[in-house]
């Protein structure tokens, strides 16, 4: 069996037993360095990463195929890529880079299979006279228009 398919099968078997966890990315380099990035509906613990690592490592023969393995959780610096990740972050501020290179920031209020909804709050110049006016706008954004979406970290 092909090496990548074998890793994918082991990982899928593990994830089937842990429905709260899901795969974000699986990378296998030319030197067979495996990187697995997981996320979970309630976050990912160190034990979750260890369990996933063991599910792969204990079922592979290092004599047959030498590899390195790294299993990690999707951190704050990782972009959101699946609707499930977006759902987990409802109520949080997101920074989104759109396909047309515009950047917007707003509170995630709704997640659907094909789009998300943000509440944008900003100031814009008055139509008549000087000064600015506060604007609150609800905006639907299809996933196809999102180049990159990150949870905004505020201190």
Order of helices and strands: HEEHEHEEEEE
- Main sheet summary: 5 strands, antiparallel
Give the N-terminus to C-terminus distance in angstroms. Answer: 49 Å
Secondary structure tally: strands: 8
Shape: elongated
If helices are DSSP runs of H or I spanning 4 or more residues, what is the number of helices? 3
In terms of DSSP E residues, the strand content is: 35-45%
Helical residue percent?
A: 10-25%
Average of the residue pLDDT scores: 91
* Poorly predicted runs of 5 or more residues: none
Radius of gyration: 20 Å
- SS-based structural class? alpha+beta
Strand order of the largest sheet: 7-6-5-4-8
Could you outline the blueprint of secondary structure elements for this entry?
Elements: H1 3-17, E1 21-28, E2 33-40, H2 46-57, E3 68-73, H3 83-88, E4 93-98, E5 103-111, E6 115-125, E7 132-142, E8 146-151
Parallel strand pairs: 2-3
Antiparallel strand pairs: 1-2, 4-5, 4-8, 5-6, 6-7
Helix pairs in contact: 1-2
Tell me what you see in this structure:
With 155 residues, the protein is an alpha+beta fold. 21% of the residues lie in helices and 42% in strands. It has helices at residues 3-17, 46-57, 83-88, and strands at 21-28, 33-40, 68-73, 93-98, 103-111, 115-125, 132-142, 146-151. It has a five-stranded antiparallel beta sheet. It has a three-stranded mixed beta sheet with strand order 1-2-3, covered by helices on one side. A hairpin with a 6-residue loop joins strand 6 (115-125) and strand 7. The chain is elongated.
